[in-house]
Amino acid sequence: MSTLFTINACKSFGCRNLGQPTSTDYSWPDYRLGYPALHCRACGSYPPLFDEQQFRDWLSVHLSTFATEKGHFCPVCYGTKTICYGHNPQGSQRIQCRNCKKVWTPKQYQKEITPPEIIETVALLVPFQGASGGQKLYVLISFDALRGNILHLSTNYTQHQAGESLHYRYRGNAEPELHESNIVQRVDMREAQFLRRSQFDEIQYGSAALKRNAKGVILRPVITAHGHFRVLNILFPTVKTHVISHECFLRGAIITAWADLFRQQQGEIWFIEEEIADDTDNMPWRFQGTTYHGWWKNQWQLWVQGKNRKMVCALTGGNNSKAEMLSL
């Protein structure tokens, strides 16, 4: 059974139900934490519930549009095995899916993408011309950690129709940007922000209102994250290492998209918080110790390189010796 569209599932590393769309251990909706959740009795977790049909409806169109434009996978069955199939009357390359035989002409055909060993993903807030000044989009950019090239970019604006439960609703109280000079305290303050949300994935980053007659929808950033990583999972299903900005729902989106690998204890997700004052420093990083933060009491390592500081957290086990080399 394909889990490409699964979003309501256990997201706990080490649980037998991780990424499983159905389980006798599940019960829902559960309101113990104050929001509708799926309760996994096997591990005791309470991941927030989504409207799965609305997510499926949006994601299917999102994936098909991406595939039609880029040509990296089939817009019908999402298969990645394709062949060149002649050219259209304008001379553009046509592609045929080897699985379902769909034929189409991508707008921006690129024959191959070299699979990355490590995917790094950062989140940004970018201004856009909306209903008034000060409107912002939530942006995710994923890179090949070793080659530096951009693998995929997403914003929480979508041109497609999306159900109401997927829409971003700004309630007038944005999470403040953290400028704490002590990097350890900044990690702690960020974890405290997660706890103050109505639910862990319900970020309030600021206003994002479209112009009155504009087409499209602004999505909840967590929905954007799930769509973003489903695309990357289709393209790179065997990648095992992810390095991400310090945001809890990015972890949930990754571990759901690559659940098969994580269930086999073959995947790694790392949070990174950095403070780079001198990007020319080539001295080795020096380990300074560990601290524990947040609801889950995750272990963070502090590393120092001259004037530079970084905090590194292995969210799914992983080899701690990697911490020295990882960065964003």
Describe this structure in words.
- The chain has 3 domains: 49 residues, no CATH class; 52 residues, no CATH class; 207 residues, no CATH class.
- With 328 residues, it is of the alpha+beta class.
- Helix 1 crosses helix 3 and helix 3 packs parallel to helix 4.
- The longest helix is centred in the N-terminal third of the chain and has 19 residues.
- It is built from 5 helices and 15 strands.
- Strands 8-7-6-11-12-15-14-13 form an 8-stranded mixed β-sheet, covered by helices on one side. Strands 3-4-5 form a 3-stranded antiparallel β-sheet, with no helix packed on it. Strands 1-2 form a two-stranded antiparallel sheet.
- The mean pLDDT is 95.
- It comes from Salmonella enteritidis.
- This is Cytoplasmic protein.
In short:
The chain is built from 5 helices and 15 strands. It is an alpha+beta fold. The radius of gyration is 21 Å and the shape is globular.
Please supply descriptive tags for the structure shown above.
single chain; about 325 residues; alpha+beta; 3 domains; 8-stranded mixed β-sheet; 3-stranded antiparallel β-sheet; 5 helices; 15 strands; globular
User: What is the overall shape?
Assistant: globular
Number of helices: 5
Quote the distance from N terminus to C terminus: 35 Å
By secondary-structure content and strand pairing, the structural class works out as alpha+beta
**Alpha carbon gyration radius:** 21 Å
- What is the number of beta strands? 15
Q: Main β-sheet, in a few words?
A: 8 strands, mixed
- Strand residue content: 25-35%
Mean pLDDT level: 95
Tally of individual domains: 3
Instruction: List low-confidence stretches.
Output: none
Protein name: Cytoplasmic protein
Organism: Salmonella enteritidis
